[in-house]
Structure formats: structure tokens, C-alpha cells
Task: inverse folding
């Protein structure tokens, strides 16, 4: 198996092993009846995150750069032939995602281009589902798949007026005007977006390949600029070695990079076989390749180590024919090694940090409760053992003290009730400013201003104010989040002073990530329409469509922010409430046991034996909890691991 495929497979196995270890902890918590509702929710979120984890690689280029051939060479050479269509001219006419969803049969789902004539982003239509046309995919036949994949290259001819309504024709562009035929029609893609559900081993492990069709689609399908490409874990920008960076290539690069920097971008200088020349020495050809690499790196302001000269076509042929010498000459293995280094370690660290930290928090809270139970049982054992051989008056005094402590603790319970009320009021105030309903008011106001705008500067001000308002909403919410955090810390300090409890401080949380998402969306908008004087009807339509996409992205940001904020809010008081319930239970049991001994309803020795069993149970749970959490940490820290089920830990 190729190194890239092996690396992705090992990553998938590591992720599955981590999920198995977390599931063992959850099952044990259920079996021992120590799984609190909030803890269950957090563990389930971690498991869901692992189940839905994806590694997204976006391939971006102008047409005829060999992008589809590169995808074939890297991922599908094991089929022995091309899977994605690859020929002269355009072979990918619409944005295409290759992924695997086991809830659907192998198929190609294509969104008709006519949907561009209606309001709604691609994501909106994905949620609806009914608009998509579905084509079956026969994965047992490589020829059948190749034929089916040609769907993404299908085109249709429509009148210029219709193309304008879709934002696919600009009368001011001389390059487009020459494409109009004698009947006043123009050729456009038949599809707006395609999703290929394909049970390839790498796709089964969570790999998603995004194939983009060039500047025309990137400019007119703004969701690529706003979401799909920026959210990819790696972006491969494909150029032709014989031309280097052309003006249209540079336009694509500027649209794709946006404000995300170059942290996950690789430039691929494809078709270096075109530089192979029998009349030149190997050294001369190498110097020519190096000059092209340096020129590309300088133009794109990219580290030369991130520019990879390859021959995708020769690499594919070499893999199919098992020609190791030709494979090394194609330089494809160097690019694949770079993808491994760029993708897997960084993605693994993100997944590990997100999941393991959540599970560690659950384990820490349970450990605190079990430690409190252990201390209480030890104290009760000490008291009851001290009663052995004592008279009735000593037992009576202990009974009175136990009852008094029980009554005193009820004051603590009242404090928790008061804290819950304050917490609820502060939370409601916080959510009022970040719910999707609050966003809706800003959208309506901004759209009204845009419709009334006659000049592009007025339009720019309206959009600028829209983003400024959303950022202000999140920053105001950040202030309220800090207020809630300080309130919870105050409650914890009070309990620490009065009862000696040691509680972990609330997990740090802010909305800064979502503010950054808004700023990226604003930057994408500016890159599309900042210098544009919107004077024609079709440009207005394009602008409105882009704003629809911005609104869709804003809604997604607000929805995620609201969900994550709610999860953080819900996590604040349960650890304190768990401690309160545990302490309350132990005090009640203590008062009851002493009363029974006083009233001769149970022997002192029997109660001591019960407490010794309870102590052993608490210590056993602490030991098993440590073993299970240590295993999660161990799996999380290991770079690549096969799934191993720890039956002994689960049985314990």
C-alpha cells in the first residue's frame, strides 16, 4: 500500500481506537451508575466528533492544469486506470466532492444549474435534498465509474439572458462575448455542484476530496471562497510547469488564499515531463525545474519547500505499470510525503485535544465525587470505630452532631438554588444577543439598505456595518461570558472556604473563534466586490447571490456559536451539584446509621462492615477510572495504533 494510503488508514485506525476507549469508559460509567446526564452529553459529543471526523483536501486550479489527473495519480491508481475523466480542456465543470457516507448507496448526486436562479446557497440546497438528481454508481467496474464520473463535465447551452440570471455571463467581459454562438446561446455547466458517494478505502477513513473547476466557478459560486476551500485541511494549488503562474492562475490564488495565510497550502507544478528534453543533460533539466519552482514561490509568496514539481500523468502510469524508476522521475512520492506531514499530525492533534480534554474533564469531575465519597466513608468509619465500647450518651452526642451537620448542609443546598437562578438570568441575557433570531434582524435591516443603495460605496457601507454589528454582538457576549465565569468561580471559592472542596475551575471559553470566522467571511466579500462598481443588473444579481451566501455562512457561525455556548453554560454548575448530591447523600446515610445504632435497630459492627464495603467500592471505582482514562490518554498520545479492546478494564 502507498505511504499516503497507509498513513490515512493508520490515522483512521487510531481514531477508531480512541473512540473504542472512550466508549469503554462510557459503558463502565453506565454499569456503575455513575454517569451524570451532563457527562453523558459531553462524552457523546466527543464520540460524535470522532465519528464525523473528516480530512478534507481541496484541489484548486484553472482548467487544463492536470488537476483531475493528479487526483487519479494520488488516490485512484490502484484501480489500474483513470477514474476521474482527464483529457484536454475542461473535465470538471462544477465543484465536486468525493466522500463516503455509509447511510447512502454509491451514487453521484448533482444539483441542477437552474437552482442558481433562486435564492439559496449550495448548503441550503444540501439540507433540502429534493432538488438533487441521483445517478447510481457501479463500483465493481472501473470503466463504469469513469463513465459515470463524466457527469461532472456535462454542459448545456442556454440563452445569454438565462446565463446572466445565473451570474455566469458578463456582457462587459470580451472573453465571454466571443463564446456566444449565432443563436445567442452560451455553453455553461449543466450542474451547480456534485457529490460523489464512493466506498473507496481512503474515503471510508474520512478523506474528502474537493475538486474545484477554476476561476469562473470560484468567482460565481462564493460558497467555495467562504466555506469549502478555507475549511479544507490542505489546499493543493495546481499549476502547469511550462507556463508557471499566469494571470488567471494568480487570480485563482488570490481568491482561494483570502486571509487564511499559507499555513495549509501547497503549490503543485504539474506536467514537468513537458520539460524533459533528450537534447538537454539531466543537470540542465533540473536547473530549469528549480528556476520554475523559485519563480512560482516568489510570485505566490510561498516557501519554496511548499512548491512541488511533479508529473501526475507519468506518476499514474508508473503506479499502474509498477515502474519504480518512472515513479521516482515523476516526483509524485515527494508530494505524497508532504501531504502526510501536513495533514495527519496536525489533524490528529486537533482531534486529540478536542476529544481527550472533554473526556478528561468528565473523569476529573467523577474522581472528585469518588474522592469525596472516600473521605466521607473514612470519616464515618473513624467515628463508628471510636464508638466501640462507648456508652449510650456518646452515641447520643454523635447522633445530635450528625443531624446538626445535615441541617447545616441544607444551607449549602439553598446557596446552589440561588446560584442556579443567577446563572439562569445571566445565561438568558447572554443568549439574547447570539441566537439566530438576533442575527435575522441584522440580515433584514442590511438587505433593506442594500436594496436602497444606488452606488457601490453605499453598498459597501451597508455590508461593512452588517459585519461590524455581528462582531459587536459576539464581543458583547464575550463580556457576559466572563461575568458568568466569575460568578461560578465565586461560588466555588465559597464552597472551598466553607467545606474544603477542591473543584476544577470552569473550562475557558470565548467567542473569539467565531469573530475570526466573521472576519474571514467579510474578507471574502471584499475580495469579490470591494473594488467593483455595481452598475449592471447581472452584477447586482451576483452581488445579491453572494450576500445570500454570506447570510448562510453567518447563520452557520451563529448556530455553531449558540450550540457551543449552550454546551459550556450547561457544563458549569453540574460538577458543583454533583458534589452537593454526594455530600448530602453521605450525611443522610451517616445520620441514619448513627440513629439505628442508638435505637438498637442495627449493630455497630454491621454498619462498620457496610462502610468498609463502601470504602472498598469507592477505591475500586477510582482504580478502574484511572485505568480507563489512562488508556484513553495512551491511545490519544500514540501516533498510530491498531484498535485493541481492553476487556479486563471493561469487566472491572
Result:
Amino acid at each position: 500500500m502507498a505511504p499516503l494510503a497507509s498513513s490515512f488508514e493508520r490515522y483512521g485506525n487510531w481514531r477508531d481506537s480512541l473512540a473504542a476507549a472512550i466508549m469503554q469508559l462510557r459503558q463502565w460509567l453506565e454499569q456503575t451508575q455513575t454517569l451524570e446526564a451532563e457527562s453523558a452529553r459531553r462524552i457523546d459529543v466527543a464520540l460524535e466528533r470522532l465519528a464525523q471526523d473528516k480530512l478534507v483536501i481541496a484541489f484548486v486550479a484553472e482548467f487544463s492544469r492536470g488537476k483531475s489527473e493528479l487526483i487519479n495519480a494520488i488516490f485512484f491508481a490502484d484501480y489500474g486506470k483513470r477514474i476521474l475523466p482527464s483529457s484536454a480542456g475542461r473535465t470538471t465543470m462544477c465543484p465536486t466532492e468525493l466522500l463516503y457516507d455509509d447511510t447512502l448507496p454509491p451514487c453521484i448526486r448533482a444539483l441542477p444549474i437552474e437552482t442558481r436562479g433562486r435564492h439559496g446557497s449550495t448548503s441550503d440546497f444540501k439540507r433540502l435534498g429534493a432538488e438533487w438528481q441521483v445517478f447510481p454508481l457501479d463500483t465493481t467496474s472501473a470503466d463504469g465509474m469513469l463513465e459515470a464520473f463524466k457527469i461532472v463535465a456535462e454542459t448545456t447551452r442556454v440563452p445569454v439572458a438565462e446565463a446572466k440570471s445565473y451570474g455566469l455571463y458578463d456582457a462587459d467581459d470580451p472573453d465571454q462575448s466571443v463564446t456566444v454562438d449565432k443563436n445567442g446561446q452560451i455553453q455553461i455547466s449543466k450542474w451547480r455542484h456534485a457529490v460523489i458517494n464512493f466506498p473507496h478505502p481512503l474515503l471510508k477513513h474520512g478523506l474528502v476530496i474537493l475538486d474545484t473547476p477554476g476561476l469562473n466557478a470560484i468567482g460565481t459560486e462564493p460558497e467555495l471562497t467562504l466555506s469549502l476551500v478555507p475549511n479544507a485541511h490542505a489546499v493543493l494549488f495546481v499549476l502547469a510547469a511550462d507556463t508557471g503562474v499566469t494571470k488567471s492562475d494568480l487570480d485563482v490564488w488570490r481568491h482561494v488564499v483570502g486571509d487564511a495565510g499559507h499555513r495549509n497550502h501547497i503549490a503543485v507544478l504539474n506536467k514537468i515531463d513537458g520539460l524533459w528534453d533528450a537534447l538537454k543533460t539531466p543537470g540542465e533539466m533540473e536547473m530549469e525545474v528549480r528556476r520554475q519552482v523559485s519563480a512560482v514561490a516568489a510570485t505566490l509568496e510561498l516557501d519554496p519547500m511548499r512548491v512541488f514539481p511533479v508529473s501526475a500523468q507519468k506518476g499514474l502510469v508508473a503506479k499502474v505499470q509498477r515502474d519504480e524508476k518512472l515513479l521516482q522521475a515523476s516526483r509524485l512520492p515527494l508530494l505524497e510525503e508532504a501531504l502526510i506531514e501536513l495533514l495527519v499530525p496536525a489533524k490528529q492533534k486537533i482531534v486529540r485535544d478536542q476529544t481527550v480534554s472533554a473526556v478528561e474533564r468528565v473523569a476529573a469531575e467523577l474522581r472528585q465525587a469518588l474522592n469525596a465519597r472516600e473521605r466521607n466513608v473514612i470519616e464515618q468509619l473513624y467515628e463508628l470505630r471510636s464508638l466501640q465500647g462507648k456508652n449510650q450518651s456518646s452515641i447520643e452526642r454523635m447522633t445530635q452532631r450528625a443531624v446538626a451537620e445535615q441541617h447545616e448542609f441544607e444551607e449549602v443546598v439553598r446557596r446552589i438554588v440561588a446560584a442556579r437562578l443567577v446563572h439562569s438570568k445571566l445565561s438568558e441575557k447572554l443568549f439574547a444577543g447570539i441566537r439566530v433570531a438576533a442575527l435575522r434582524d441584522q440580515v433584514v435591516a442590511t438587505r433593506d439598505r442594500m436594496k436602497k443603495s444606488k452606488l457601490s460605496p453605499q453598498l459597501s457601507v451597508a455590508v461593512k456595518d452588517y459585519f461590524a454589528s455581528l462582531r459587536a454582538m459576539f464581543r458583547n457576549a464575550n463580556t457576559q461570558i466572563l461575568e458568568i465565569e466569575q460568578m461560578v468561580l465565586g461560588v466555588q471559592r465559597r464552597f472551598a472556604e466553607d467545606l474544603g472542596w477542591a473543584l476544577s475551575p470552569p473550562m475557558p471559553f470565548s467567542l473569539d473563534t467565531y469573530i475570526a470566522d466573521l472576519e474571514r467571511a467579510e474578507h471574502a466579500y471584499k475580495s469579490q466586490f470591494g473594488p467593483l462598481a455595481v452598475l449592471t443588473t447581472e452584477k447586482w444579481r451576483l452581488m445579491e447571490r453572494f450576500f445570500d451566501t454570506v447570510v448562510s455562512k453567518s447563520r452557520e457561525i451563529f448556530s455553531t456559536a449558540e450550540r457551543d455556548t449552550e454546551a459550556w453554560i450547561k457544563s458549569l454548575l453540574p460538577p458543583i451539584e454533583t458534589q452537593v448530591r454526594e455530600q448530602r447523600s453521605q450525611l443522610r446515610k451517616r445520620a441514619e446509621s448513627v440513629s439505628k445504632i442508638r435505637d438498637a435497630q442495627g449493630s455497630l459492627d454491621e454498619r462498620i462492615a457496610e462502610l468498609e464495603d463502601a470504602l472498598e467500592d469507592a477505591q475500586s471505582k477510582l482504580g478502574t477510572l484511572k485505568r480507563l482514562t489512562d488508556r484513553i490518554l495512551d491511545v490519544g498520545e500514540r501516533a498510530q495504533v491498531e484498535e485493541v479492546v481492553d476487556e479486563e478494564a471493561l469487566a472491572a
